[in-house]
Task: inverse folding
């Protein structure tokens, strides 16, 4: 049982910032006094809330080389997470709610915490913990089922192979067959009832941590994993999602954020085949990737001495990228999900690495 009550809730909305204002000044709102951000951060090794770290201002990068979209959109500050978190399972939508699982929180890197955001009421709910705490857990939803796959039990290393499903037997977690081998930072998506687990990283030290090109699929009918065609280049911390039955795998790191990728590949499950698409304009890893209004939006992410705020959208029909209003608070390792007519981006790290966690929660809309 963690420090929050099982019935803990927060509510209330905050300020709106227009896309046009941000376009004129990409760092607008990044000064030391910004009410929705004050006190919303915590250092990994020191308890107690702090304001946005000063190093953020030198590391934040928001300029994109992509053509500027006609509708820049706007960002809205929403109710913060109950506690600062980063490197949690990137958010997934289940019904009309967002789930955030595991990650760094309260001076540990293996928290089992599970928070649910209800967009209709703009409030957070405390949900049943993961059976095993970890960071960089792979998550995906199929129908009413939320899957949690693998993860690291030390800081971005030392993976485990355990897997769980939430909602298969009531509102609780139940174990499923483990991964064939331990892995963390694995990309998880569903096509129909089958769960695809792609890429990720292995290794028990920073020196032997390596990206992998695995492509596994889990079938809940017989509770088993099988191997499919590997991804074209081993990567982890990718942005991955499904669009019209095809899996888009975008960006990510090759072993570390020193070698981030712009590669964009699409997998066709019917043909067991990967093909290349137009690459993402900004090389990054640990970013969000969300299908919104028929386009793939990629926001945030991490690089060497960089924390990205670029918000770039891909049109699958035109094979083209455009740039939209950058994030109010550039972050990496955060949750992102589309609910209704907005993209919600919660938590994450405001500077390179995992040394600072945030409770920041902001939403993007083209409305």
Result:
């Amino acid at each position: 049982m963690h420090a929050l009550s099982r019935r803990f809730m927060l509510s209330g909305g905050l300020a709106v910032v227009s896309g046009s204002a941000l376009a004129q000044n990409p760092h607008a709102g990044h000064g030391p006094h910004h009410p929705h951000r004050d006190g919303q951060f915590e250092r990994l090794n020191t308890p107690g809330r702090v304001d946005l770290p000063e190093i953020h201002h030198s590391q934040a990068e928001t300029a994109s080389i992509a053509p500027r979209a006609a509708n820049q959109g706007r960002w809205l500050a929403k109710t913060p997470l109950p506690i600062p978190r980063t490197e949690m399972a990137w958010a997934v939508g289940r019904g009309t709610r967002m789930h955030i699982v595991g990650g760094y929180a309260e001076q540990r890197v293996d928290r089992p915490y599970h928070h649910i955001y209800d967009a209709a009421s703009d409030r957070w709910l405390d949900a049943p913990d993961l059976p095993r705490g970890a960071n960089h857990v792979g998550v995906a939803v199929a129908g009413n089922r939320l899957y949690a796959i693998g993860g690291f039990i030390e800081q971005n290393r030392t993976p485990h192979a355990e897997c769980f499903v939430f909602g298969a037997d009531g509102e609780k977690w139940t174990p499923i067959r483990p991964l064939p081998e331990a892995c963390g930072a694995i990309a998880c998506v569903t096509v129909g009832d089958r769960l695809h687990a792609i890429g990720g990283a292995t290794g028990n030290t920073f020196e032997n941590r390596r990206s992998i090109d695995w492509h596994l699929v889990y079938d809940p009918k017989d509770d088993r994993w099988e191997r499919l065609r590997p991804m074209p280049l081993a990567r982890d911390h990718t942005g991955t999602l499904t669009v019209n039955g095809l899996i888009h795998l975008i960006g990510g790191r090759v072993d570390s954020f020193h070698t981030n990728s712009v590669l964009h590949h699409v997998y066709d499950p019917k043909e067991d085949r990967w093909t290349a698409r137009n690459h993402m304009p900004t090389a990054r890893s640990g970013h969000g990737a969300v299908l919104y209004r028929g386009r793939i939006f990629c926001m945030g992410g991490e690089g060497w001495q960089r924390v990205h705020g670029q918000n770039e959208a891909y049109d699958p029909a035109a094979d083209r990228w455009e740039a939209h209003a950058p994030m109010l608070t550039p972050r990496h390792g955060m949750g992102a999900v589309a609910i209704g007519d907005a993209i919600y981006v919660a938590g994450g790290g405001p500077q390179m690495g995992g040394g600072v966690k945030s409770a920041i929660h902001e939403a993007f809309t083209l409305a």
In short: The radius of gyration is 19 Å. Residues 9-365 form a domain with the Neuraminidase fold (CATH 2.120.10.80).
